[in-house]
Amino acid sequence: MTKLLHVSASPRGEASESLTIASAFVDVYRETHPDAEVDHWDLWDGSLPDFGPAAAGAKMAVIRGEPPTGAEAEAWRDVVAAVHRFLSADRLLFSVPMWNSGIPYVLKQFVDVVSQPGMVFGLDAVTGYQPLLAGTGRRAAVVYTSSVWCPEVGPGFGSDFQSTYFDDWLRWTGITDLTPIRHHPTLTGDVEDSRQTALATAREVAKEF
């Protein structure tokens, strides 16, 4: 069974542009894929585990081929559960607002939690990282929004470390079938026109996703 996982990184609820566009995507996806399962992972709902000293120690133990113990083992169980939730989906939708030219810190936390050895990546001493999600048929759509930066403005309006970082991470995992959905009206642009264009794109992409 196909499963869509929507990972949302905005804390703004109904006021969120990225979440509004992603919700339109999900509505059409449900209509056109009635047998698919849909899971919404709101990264602000408290279900994403921390990745502090115990989890970091557990990760390094796993890389060394050793089982985590004690507090590290407990932290690792929470991390593995999060990774499994991520890996349970073959269709991925991310709603990503731009924060300070990059991504919200909670999304970086998500990246750090799910990027684990033996599950998402391998490591070879000669060839380097191995993308373990390559060839799995996973597809990703990413809603990128910003209110100041856009591709047409100058450097005084910021830089795009939002999509450059996140697209690179997805490809690093082996997910290369990526579809961006963008809403970047800028401070002087037509916000409603940009929003409607993004909504239309999201609905069209969802039909064949």
Q: How would you summarize this macromolecular structure in one to three sentences?
A:
This protein has 209 residues and is of the alpha/beta class. It contains 6 helices and 7 strands.
Walk me through what this model shows.
- This protein has six helices and seven strands, in the order E-H-E-H-H-E-H-E-E-E-H-E-H.
- With 209 residues, it is of the alpha/beta class.
- It has one domain (3-41, 89-207): Flavodoxin domain (Rossmann fold, 3-Layer(aba) Sandwich), CATH 3.40.50.360.
- The protein starts with a strand and ends with a helix.
Number of helices: 6
The CATH architecture classification is 3-Layer(aba) Sandwich
User: What would CATH call the class?
Assistant: Alpha Beta
The CATH topology name reads Rossmann fold
Which structural category do the helix and sheet elements fall into? alpha/beta
Radius of gyration (CA) equals 18 Å
Major sheet details: 5 strands, parallel
Question: What keywords describe this structure?
Answer:
Rossmann fold, alpha/beta, 209 residues, 7 strands, five-stranded parallel beta sheet, two-stranded antiparallel sheet, globular, single chain
